[in-house]
Amino acid sequence: MSATTSTRAAGAVALALAVALAGCGREEAAPAPEANAATADARQAPPDPEPAEPVKLEDVSEITSTYVIGISYAPSAEQYPGLAAAMAEYAEEARQELMEAVEARSARSGVDPSEAMYDLSLAFSEVLVTPNVVAYAADGSTYTGGAHSIPLVARFVWLPPQRRMLTAERLVPEPEGWGPIAEYVRERLSEQLGERLADADADPVDRDGQQRTGREMIEQGTSGGAEDFAAFEPLAGERGRLSGLRFVFPPYQVAPYSEGMQAVEVPAPVLLPSVAPELQVLFEGGEGADAAGVSGAVAAESS
């Protein structure tokens, strides 16, 4: 064998070894199959089941000698069948509860003309409509006896590209993720409580007692994780993203009935550390597509 041939052979061997070693390096750096599968599952969550038939949201008005029902919808919600079905189901459940109370009262003692009429009043309204997120509010009350009506407060947030409802459990999938969000909300609610008491003309001793009671209600009403933060509204930000969420709390949850519904706006920087990775693209400062391409990125994740 000539020196030239030996040199070429040695070079070929060296090149083969270099390629093999480089290939080994790439294999070691590649993510584990389990990690790839988990990421794919998270970003390709299936859409929510859609109703077999189109959902028609029709206002309801019923007036009888024993009860009154008034339900009004936002017609624009019909273009999202899954969302419309959820709204109609919520209204129907409220109506059924009222009718059960009406029947129970009639079976118990008949109808006393002096008794207050039972009633259900519920209105759905449009909160936000964007290509990536739409939201509707349900507000009302039902009266089936007692000192006052029972408030009805619900929020429906729909992601059109994914065809999925954005629930508190999906927003923050890890229970411990609610900790910093709850802490922020409690601070803001405590500030609001202090402002209300400062404006009230009350004895200092009474004010101190009301403050202690108020803080206890706030603590109890925000320590249950996703269940306590089920009602929220998206806040429109710049270039198609969300600047944060407004969490709403019905009477009795974090304040007395007389104080009405309470609300706290939580900015995106507070939310993002807890938000599911595949949903961070929806928020300002979240990882994902450029703000101008948010819709395309979300759609791609669901395809």
UniProtKB/TrEMBL annotation:
Q: Where is this region: Disordered?
A: 28-58
The record, for Gene3D superfamilies, names: Heat-shock cognate protein, ATPase (3.90.640.20)
Low complexity bias located where? 30-42
Against InterPro entries, the record matches this protein to: DUF3298, PdaC/RsiV-like_sf
Alphabetical keyword list = Signal
Q: Where are the transmembrane segments?
A: none
| Residue ranges of every copy of the DUF3298 domain listed in the record | 243-267
Tagged with keyword Phosphoprotein: no
> Which N-terminal stretch is annotated as signal sequence?
1-22
Q: What is this protein called?
A: DUF3298 domain-containing protein
Q: Which organism is it from?
A: Lysobacter defluvii IMMIB APB-9 = DSM 18482
